[in-house]
Amino acid sequence: MNIVVQGCGAMGSVYAALFCSAGHSVSVMSRNRDHMAAIERSGLRVSGASGDRIVTPTVVEDLPNTPIDLLIMSVKAGAVADAATMSAKAKERIARIVTIQNGLGSADIVADLLGSDKLVVGIAQGFGASLVSPGHVHHNDMKAIRLGTYGVLPDDSVHELATVWRQAGFDTDPVRDILTAQWEKLICNVAYSAPCALTGLTVGEALQDGVLGPVTRDAAVEAYDVARALDIPLSFEDPVATVRAFAERMPDAKPSVLLDIEAGKTTEIDVINGSIPKQAARVGLSAPVNATLTRLVQAMENNVRKKAR
To answer: What is the topology classification, in CATH, of domain 180-308?
Structure first.
């Protein structure tokens, strides 16, 4: 297959490396010029739960002017609109699109700009990926990839796509209710994204911390209660046990929000912890824990940006 990874950061690099190793033709693009230059110069190294490999994807600045069997949009949530706009001019050449972001709402933006007839929503669960240095990405785990249609694409097409991901080495299943899968990941993410960003702790350290641990659990329980109020059919009844198991799988991982803070980048906090108050308001509820955590991270972001001027 001809595959393009749009947004070849930490997670995008994991996708690119495994698909390259499986024999696919892979092109990668990213705003991180240092990372792209290192890949062009010495190849892409991905180490961690999937092994340790160096592959040589093709670095591009724009979508190739050839048929694209699969476009993987793994940009940050805040860059989705720009990425979809860039891809719109190549829409007729793209057979399938998988958009994979944290939080809620990104797929709606992609569908608005590119249509839903080719769109699959992806969820990456429990990878703990980070950029070690330009050209080198490490991931602590690789629990699962879940794929679901946005609503128009036939189930058979999603099943075929899931098979391609499995053959590349990902634990991948098609799911009929992608919204449930998104919420189940979101509940784990809200537990650690903001708390770790605010303290610099890994997920394992946050889990065990006597002061911060209860905050992570309160954030998760609040998100769980909102999901239940929205009639999301979750597969678990104990959010505390669920987020504990999540952290225990990859205790050394840093959430992407913390990694972005450390790199001086804009975070995705608005679509992670920040999404819970917005969803709560839909059913007449409030979410003070996640609202407060979101504001604290936003204040930290503002301070980082001021110091960088």
So the answer is: N-(1-d-carboxylethyl)-l-norvaline Dehydrogenase; domain 2 (1.10.1040)
